[in-house]
Amino acid sequence: MNDIDTWGFATGRPPAQSPSTQSAARRHEPQRTARAALTRIVEPGDETAGRWLREMGPVALWHALADEDADPPAGARPAKIAGLRLRAARARPAEDLATVASLGGRFLCPGDDEWPGQLDDLGDARPIGLWVRGRANLRLWALRSVAVVGARACTEYGAHLAATLGAGLADRGWTVASGAAYGIDGAAHRGTLAADGATIAVLASGIDHAYPRGHTELIGRIAEQGLVVAELPPGDHPTRSRFIQRNRVIAALTRGTVVVEAELRSGSLVTARRALALGRFTMGMPGPVTSALSAGVHQLLRGEATVVTDADEVIELVGSIGDLAPERRGPALVRDLLDPVAARVLEALPARGAAGATHLAREAGTPHELTHTKLLELQALGFVQRYGDRWELVRRAEGTDRSRRGGA
Questions:
Q1: pLDDT for 164 beyond 70
Q2: 206 by DSSP, 3-state: which?
Q3: What's the predicted TM-score (pTM) here?
Q4: 66, 97, 321, 380 — which has fewest CB within 10 A?
């Protein structure tokens, strides 16, 4: 028989651990430790492994993968089990837990008070657990959160939109989630931080491994002011598939996803469509029709997404009843306050020259006396002036004159 390890089950190759590591391990319950180990063994979003986890439980699954003599999960392909067992040999969950604790972080499991229940919508693709840095409560912050994602090689227009949107959402008490990447992600995080708002960075690496390297300072600021979250254990690096799987967490964690600039082939569109499949709101901010960086957003808007232009419109969609965006109206003009008859009389006056009251009554379709009364009102308001028995428009600056003539 194999030796029985610290957490109560046999392992084919018990990890060599220092006394301090063993002590740290004893402080964690078996299921939490098993899940921590599995985050180093199983790739994020692996639905087959997720089904095994659901059917067997974390302790039994780790046992099956760590012990070469143990029976593998039912129906598992030998090649897959062989690869997972190679990874299991390097799993040191107690060390990982200690490393994250030294950073002031923690490891969350499904069922914890801080676990965001909306992640369970992913089914067997649900994260095994989440490694978290930051003082805030992830579950509470995620209750009122919006994902802002988009192109890495964004334009100045896109960066401005993302930063402004992040700040606007922060001002309204909403959390902004994104992936801490270059471009739109970084702009959204920075806009939120500048407004002293709440922001969550979901990484495709370990939470102690800043990626991209150029955002090391930004990710550090987010860890201090917000939350940094990852499925991967400390030290793990990102890969192309891990970026894609990271996007499903962003989509599931938030109430809705806003795409700001994205080409026709973009990971941001994957996030948006995953959000839609999960029953979340999907939104896009339009850009120039000539820009390839907005082509993906426009394609999304032609189908499943809703157009939004600012934080108010986003919150109107994802928020509670009564969170309505303000009515959009152009500037109010004095002419807008005229009653319909006065407006018709004003429209009857020629753009150049003067006209008599009889002519104006005929053109406006109003009785002569009523026309005369309305002309006196228009005179008092400064719209018209009288020369003998004829009337003409008051000449003002071109813009003012146009406004009084309805922009004609």
A1: yes
A2: coil
A3: 0.77
A4: 321
